[in-house]
Amino acid sequence: MAKSKFEYVRLFEADDRCLPNTWIVVRVDGKGFHKFSTEHEYEKPNDIKALSLMNRAAMSVMEEFKDVCLAYGQSDEYSFVFRKETQAYSRRSAKLSTNVCSLFTSAFVYYWNEYFPTSKPRYPPVFDGRTVLYPSNQNIRDYLSWRQADCHINNLYNTTFWTLILKGGLTPAEAESKLKGTLSGDKNEILFSQFGINYNTEPEMLRKGTVLVRRKIPVALPNGGTREKSQIVQEHVDIIGDEFWNTNSHLLTVT
Amino acid sequence: MAKSKFEYVRLFEADDRCLPNTWIVVRVDGKGFHKFSTEHEYEKPNDIKALSLMNRAAMSVMEEFKDVCLAYGQSDEYSFVFRKETQAYSRRSAKLSTNVCSLFTSAFVYYWNEYFPTSKPRYPPVFDGRTVLYPSNQNIRDYLSWRQADCHINNLYNTTFWTLILKGGLTPAEAESKLKGTLSGDKNEILFSQFGINYNTEPEMLRKGTVLVRRKIPVALPNGGTREKSQIVQEHVDIIGDEFWNTNSHLLTVT
Amino acid sequence: MAKSKFEYVRLFEADDRCLPNTWIVVRVDGKGFHKFSTEHEYEKPNDIKALSLMNRAAMSVMEEFKDVCLAYGQSDEYSFVFRKETQAYSRRSAKLSTNVCSLFTSAFVYYWNEYFPTSKPRYPPVFDGRTVLYPSNQNIRDYLSWRQADCHINNLYNTTFWTLILKGGLTPAEAESKLKGTLSGDKNEILFSQFGINYNTEPEMLRKGTVLVRRKIPVALPNGGTREKSQIVQEHVDIIGDEFWNTNSHLLTVT
Amino acid sequence: MAKSKFEYVRLFEADDRCLPNTWIVVRVDGKGFHKFSTEHEYEKPNDIKALSLMNRAAMSVMEEFKDVCLAYGQSDEYSFVFRKETQAYSRRSAKLSTNVCSLFTSAFVYYWNEYFPTSKPRYPPVFDGRTVLYPSNQNIRDYLSWRQADCHINNLYNTTFWTLILKGGLTPAEAESKLKGTLSGDKNEILFSQFGINYNTEPEMLRKGTVLVRRKIPVALPNGGTREKSQIVQEHVDIIGDEFWNTNSHLLTVT
């Protein structure tokens, strides 16, 4: 079709291709989810249904983007790690962040009532997104460690805070005051000595967050026997130490 | 809370603030909507319900972002024009594009069954987003003219194409062949002489797309009388010529 | 010639084209010129030879880059304003800043001994460069006003400071102490009442800096008569107020 | 001093800091040096004086920028490799490229008559500059290999081309025609069989270009004995193969 005289405005679009040979992370973050979780009566300190819905939305992203080799989620955020050599959307930063963010949001609303069957969200939930580049394997590991350390710190705090309220009868202000200046050891001690809770036996999904990776899984064949099929699996494991990376060394290797 | 030794990875996030004193457009575009519209049995050549749902999603964006002074939508795309002087998200490009794109997507799924009450989408729909800067008033007008000219060209083509099929009994291949190389006048002639259709009397929403602007609307007060209230209204008008801009000169003025 | 297997590294070069339809300013700044001026015994508070050499170097830039419509210099810095619509180096930011900066530096060293005939610089002088975009005519005028206001503030200070030392017999520390917290009016008063100097009659090159523009100048023809020829001229005039811009309105008009 | 109302224009300067933990290369390239070398009667195919002046200018850059761990030059270009972890100029791209480019240019003019004592350049020579990022050690090695391969290809061509003219009596057009489509082996053969020249015994500076690195050199002490001192040395060695990198492994190691 004929081009209009207005076509020149396309030249104002900037080229935002990411530096080659770097890890590309797209992280989505819930917008105003403190308020959203309160208004939707998320259970405190953790709502398994809400976390599962986050994981479901992340699965949709990972099914769509074959070059995402690992995703990590906790609380109201999810990070998607694209292989260093990905050519998805020609590595254009905005294309990657908006497509991932839109699909994640879409799936979150779409699958909502599989996790909250008796209700509908009160309003459309929103996630923002960003693209960040990490040049080295150490950098991408440190990025993921940063998010998992954040998960640990926040979850220990929230678990103690809400236990003081729900089981200890404190007001939120009293609980906040009691926790002010405490270290990890102090919070573990409060949980154990006052409430008999061993934090280290709390569910791993809460303490570690969720890692999504692709694994070859044997699937049964109609005529008997099995064959290996790549599937996305959810794991709740430590990704700060070396063990995970030693046993999953393929993740950091250019294929 | 204590910062972890991994915090340094935050320094890898780039500063992507938009040049000050320029119009910021965020455009969202349906991803794979040719396929999506077929799989969801959108009426051809236009599905009023689907366009209305697009408009509904755009209303959500405009309600949230007070600095969007005008939005323009057609087909599976919507452009949101932020005031030149907006400081929303400190003018960070990715924040703007992902928030707008996520909210648009979320509202599209959220309000789906107000427009398609008997069904649910077969899978989560996705929109991508981009941020583009336009320095001058002429540039932003030309951008919007580009999109409306695109609407006109595509809608005239699609209307003729589908009329040849649905009323003329042609196959899609025959219709495509017949339209190859035709100009606007040729298509108008086919519609009129063969099918008695005057294209210029087709609904304006289809021919012009939809403009969203804020207008002061008188609202009734409980005790009688009225007061003016700002409301977002949908208009299906020409925005290529000068008339719209003369009567809405405030849109291009820094407030 | 055959391409080597290493050619792929070219893909790591980023596209840095400037937004269309914006004023492009390249500013060069002397690096460590406080030290440089001392080591080369620049006269205080102003060295006419040094400023003239700066102007000579700027002339070289403007002769080379036809799309520089105006340049403004003061102290150890020079700003080059490219027309909004320039396509020089495809508007690539680094190409513009490095070419301008290199030519300016080269000419500064090259013409040094036309201004300092008895000596050679003690070491190679360096200027850094940067590219900044300004969308509107008001923005580019404000940019130039900012530099000229800076010239005024610094020159009034330096003139008073050095007069107190050279004519008043103060030490630098005493002069600095005396000027601390003074306003413009105070400095004018010190110059006038203590030294009989009317600052407003100081040379305009010092108070206003130097503006380079192209003017049609009549040149004599061999056979008698004249014809107009475009030449770069140096002016020492106010560019903050409207007068300059009213009489040079072509500078801000797209050609 | 008081800030003027024009200060806001500073906000239009973009943040252009380079991604952390990546190699930063600043490459300077002669602008129009084909013409420049002809007008200054550079000897063909290579002018040792001109190459030595390039090396001298590069030495100035490396003396100033302690974080340049290696520089590589050939023909009218020089590449400066900043350590991955450099914080020079806060890694701001334009600051790095313009400072390096300006100093290189300045030194080139400044030291000109140490190499061309009987003349002065006919006009100020210009070099452009660019900043490119390379994430991995392999990438930076491939970048340097690319430049050295370029040196080899061009120098073999130029040597053969000029030998055909200067010793073989061909016109430039005849020489060009004769070399069209030839491979490296063909050119080696022409040189050897027609002119008795073994290309592999040509000076290494011409065949390999120049590598600048810092080496600990023993310097004599006044009272006898020696101590090690870091000095910049020029080497004309292969940097494509592994040997150089094995014996200089510290260059690629974060310190």
UniProtKB/TrEMBL annotation, chains A, B, C, D:
Keyword tRNA processing applies? yes
Q: Could you tell me the EC number(s) of this protein?
A: 2.7.7.79
Question: What enzyme category does the UniProt record give?
Answer: transferase
Q: Where in the numbering of this chain does the tRNAHis guanylyltransferase catalytic domain appear?
A: 6-135
Known Gene3D superfamilies for this protein?
3.30.70.3000
Q: Where does Mg(2+) 1 bind?
A: 29-30, 76
Q: Give a GO molecular function annotation for the protein.
A: GTP binding
- InterPro entries given for it? Thg1_C_dom, tRNAHis_GuaTrfase_cat, tRNAHis_GuaTrfase_Thg1, tRNAHis_GuaTrfase_Thg1_sf
Q: Which GO terms describe its biological process?
A: tRNA modification
The residues that hold Mg(2+) 2 are 29, 76
Chain positions recorded as GTP binding sites: 29-34, 75-76
Q: Mind telling me which Pfam families this protein's record contains? A: Thg1 (PF04446), Thg1C (PF14413)
Query: Could you say which cofactors this protein requires?
Result: Mg(2+)
Report keywords, A-Z.
GTP-binding, Magnesium, Metal-binding, Nucleotide-binding, Nucleotidyltransferase, Transferase, tRNA processing
Listed under catalytic activity are: a 5'-end ribonucleotide-tRNA(His) + GTP + ATP + H2O = a 5'-end phospho-guanosine-ribonucleotide-tRNA(His) + AMP + 2 diphosphate + H(+)
Q: How is the cofactor bound?
A: Binds 2 magnesium ions per subunit.
Thg1 C-terminal domain mapped to chain residues = 138-220
| Similarity comment text for this entry | Belongs to the tRNA(His) guanylyltransferase family.
* Subunit relationships: Homotetramer. Interacts with MFN1 and MFN2; functions as a guanyl-nucleotide exchange factor/GEF for MFN2 and also probably MFN1.
Function summary: Adds a GMP to the 5'-end of tRNA(His) after transcription and RNase P cleavage. This step is essential for proper recognition of the tRNA and for the fidelity of protein synthesis. Also functions as a guanyl-nucleotide exchange factor/GEF for the MFN1 and MFN2 mitofusins thereby regulating mitochondrial fusion. By regulating both mitochondrial dynamics and bioenergetic function, it contributes to cell survival following oxidative stress.
Which protein are we looking at? tRNA(His) guanylyltransferase
Q: Which gene encodes it?
A: EOG090X0AR4
